[in-house]
Design a protein that fits this description.
The structure is a single chain. The protein has about 450 residues and is an alpha+beta fold. Helix content is about 50%, strand content about 15%. The chain has twelve helices and twelve strands. The strands form three sheets. Strands 2-1-5-4-3 form a five-stranded antiparallel beta sheet, sandwiched between helices. The chain has a five-stranded mixed beta sheet with strand order 7-9-10-12-11. Strands 6-8 form a two-stranded antiparallel ribbon. Strand 9 and strand 10 form a beta hairpin. Helix 7 packs antiparallel against helix 8 and helix 10 runs antiparallel to helix 12. The N and C termini lie far apart (about 80 Å). About 25% of the residues are buried.
Length: about 450
């Protein structure tokens, strides 16, 4: 042990303060002193200063640790709150208010990735009502877009200096963003969205602890969001149960009548009704299962070369008898050369069958249905045109939704309102698009595209 070490030790004793653990290490790491009195005093001074400095540092670290522990405790509590909230919108609002509280910021927002389109949308923001949240797509080159893509937190202490930031949202909300911390919302390895907090109170910079805290909150929040979404989907189950009740009630009623003392000719009529409703019930269950499988991505979509001519002709031949009954002409116009598409022939036939049967069901007696196929470079477009009553502009955006039926369709034809949503899922699972154009009193055209199979060049497999 050399002189300087001894001197420093004495200083500690004289001050009658226990040497903090960190201070001892610090001292041992200092270069040795040569031992002159002047140097000793200088070193004592600086030592005192160093100790004072270290003590304030330690106090600070302890304070930070306490804050950190308090935050973690709050997060555990929060996790309980979040997981008990199954209403998605209420949950998102809880998350943003907790995020601002934990990070000591002015505002927060949540953006979620649309599972089907991959687009990013604002879902909730501090002080903004659900219907006021901007509906437009948040571009990939934005702050949130970056966080999703890189799957990494991002701190921007001065947004005006960062090209990823855009003042568009501020202009719309009247809020002034100065700084942003954004973290990915992750479920397993999938990024489902972004949680952002804006403007530290007092304009302090974001700390490492803020980043960590928000990441921990985001992990809890992401799981809770997924659960709430799953629960929302099970709303679909209650809708289905509702739909199943109608034919069931009818079957129960008529079967009871059958068991009572009734005329033989009525018996046959009731038995026919029961049979029809039972078929409808079976159809409904099948449609629902098919839709559930397609939506969840669990459906196995075949990847075989498909002969579209055959698919179209088969589907049309099924609806011809119904069309003939009502004097509806069905015309099919196909080019000589139809390129092969890759996909699931049975499911594509299902799409055609639904479009063609709608075109007959919702047509006028003596009307006309035109089925056509056109070929572009890299895709084919199949269209089914009818001369029916058409669809009003306010109903048009909804016809591909589950269970959506235009009012008065019920009197016109039986259906469950699942056909078009199934068709949409199938077309999209083949990489295509489906749309409708319609004019009330004139007719409707439903059309969809399918990508053409890439020709393999000779020598390529
Ligand atoms: N070609 C059409 N002309 C006019 N309205 C149509 C046409 N196709 C569909 N619609 C409207 O859109 C609604 C939804 O169609 P969709 O095929 O999904 O269900 P649906 O035919 O009622 O029942 P299903 O599940 O048996 O197909 C229909 O109820 C009808 O109101
Ligand atoms: Mg239909």
């Amino acid at each position: 042990m050399n002189a300087s070490d001894h001197a420093e030790k004495t200083t500690d004793v004289q001050q009658e303060k226990p040497a903090p653990a960190g201070a001892v290490t610090g001292r041992e790491q200092r270069p040795s002193n040569t031992g002159s009195t002047k140097a000793d005093s200088a070193s004592r001074m600086s030592l005192q200063e160093a100790i004072a400095y270290l003590e304030t540092q330690i106090a600070r670290v302890e304070e930070m640790q306490q804050k950190h522990i308090a935050r973690l405790e709050r997060i555990i509590e929060v996790s309980r709150i979040l997981n008990s909230n199954l209403n998605l919108q209420a949950l998102l609002e809880d998350i943003i208010s907790i995020a601002t509280e934990l990070t000591n910021t002015e505002a927060s927002s949540i953006l979620l990735v649309d599972k089907k389109t991959g687009e990013l949308h604002f879902e909730a923001a501090t002080g903004v009502k659900k219907h006021e949240v901007a509906t437009e797509v948040v571009p990939p080159h934005s702050v949130a877009g970056w966080v999703v893509r890189e799957n990494t937190p991002l701190v921007i202490d001065d947004v005006s200096q960062d090209p990823r930031w855009s003042r568009k949202i501020d202009d719309a909300t009247g809020f002034t963003t100065r700084s942003i911390l954004g973290v990915p919302l992750r479920v397993k390895d999938r990024v489902i969205g972004v949680l952002e907090v804006l403007n530290k109170i007092n304009d302090e910079p974001f700390t490492e602890d803020d980043v960590q805290t928000l990441c921990v909150l985001a992990d809890q929040a992401a799981v809770a969001i997924e659960n709430a979404r799953l629960f929302q989907q099970s709303d679909l189950i209650s809708e289905v149960v509702h739909e199943l009740r109608t034919p069931l009630t009818s079957i129960r009623g008529y079967s009871q009548l059958l068991l009572s003392d009734i005329k033989p000719e009525l018996k046959r009529q009731f038995a026919e009704t029961i049979n029809r409703e039972a078929i409808r019930l079976g159809q409904l269950v099948n449609d629902f299962l098919e839709l559930a499988r397609l939506e969840s991505g669990r459906a196995h979509i075949a990847q075989d070369p498909v002969d579209l001519r055959q698919v179209i002709e088969e589907a049309v031949s099924i609806i011809r008898p119904q069309a003939a009954e009502r004097d509806i002409t069905v015309n099919v116009d196909l080019p000589e050369d139809i390129p092969t598409v890759i996909g699931d022939a049975a499911r594509l036939k299902q799409v055609l069958l639904n479009l063609a049967s709608n075109a007959v069901k919702y047509n006028k007696d003596g009307g006309r249905v035109d089925v056509s196929l056109t070929v572009d470079k890299d895709r084919v477009t199949i269209a089914v045109k009818d001369t029916g009553r058409g669809i009003a502009p306010e109903d048009l955006p909804h016809v591909f939704e589950k269970f959506y039926r235009v009012v008065d369709s019920e009197q016109e034809a039986v259906g469950t309102g699942l056909g078009l949503s199934i068709a949409k899922q199938i077309v999209e699972s083949h990489g295509g698009e489906i749309w409708v154009k319609s004019e009330v009193g004139v007719g409707s055209t439903f059309a969809f595209t399918l990508p053409v199979a890439q020709k393999t060049k000779p020598g390529q497999r």
